[in-house]
Amino acid sequence: MAGHTLLKRIRHPEYAIARRVVSDVETRDSVLAHLKAICTTWQGSMLTCPDYGLVDVSELIHAFPDAIAMMAKAIRNSIAKYEPRLTNVMIKHIPSESGDLTLRFEITAQLTGGDGRSRVKFETSLDTSRKFDVR
């Protein structure tokens, strides 16, 4: 049952059927939902797990241009610690071509679970209003 989180299987019993084969698409969708949760949570905002999420961008603003590498490292560390279905995670900064102030990263990784082991790619973007988007 590596495709769905425990809470999702509790809320939707049809996902918890014994010996059900979980497809790579279902696993990828579940991982995407979890990455969205990780990237939209600032570290320190969860009392039970203070290192869950990413560092607040306002803490990195004075570290430019090193802030890009620091954010990439924070994303990679959070995924390594809190998303065990992804291995061999690589984070790549995508420079903005249009001159906007949006910070973009590409996440590539090996997806474990589901039908097997397949490569997946996600994109993240952080705009000037501190809104993270993951797709």
Largest sheet: 4 strands, antiparallel
Strand content: 15-25%
The total of beta strands comes to 4
Distance between the termini: 23 Å
Number of helices: 4
State the helicity in percent bands: 25-40%
Shape: globular
SS-based structural class? Answer: alpha+beta
What's the CATH class label? Alpha Beta
Low-confidence stretches: none
* Rounded mean pLDDT score: 84
Query: What gyration radius follows from the Cα positions, in whole Å?
Result: 16 Å
Indicate the multimeric state: single chain
As for the number of domains, it is: 1
Helix-strand topology string: HHHHEEEE
CATH topology: Nuclear Transport Factor 2, Chain: A
Strand order of the largest sheet: 1-2-3-4
Explain how this protein is built:
The protein has 135 residues and is an alpha+beta fold. It has a single domain, classed as Nuclear Transport Factor 2, Chain: A (Roll), CATH 3.10.450.40. It is 32% helix and 22% strand. The protein has 4 helices and 4 strands. The protein has helices at 6-11, 24-39, 57-60, 66-82, and strands at 86-94, 103-111, 118-126, 132-134. A 4-stranded antiparallel β-sheet has the order 1-2-3-4, with helices on one face. A hairpin with a 5-residue loop joins strand 3 and strand 4. It is globular and about 50 Å long. The two termini are 23 Å apart.
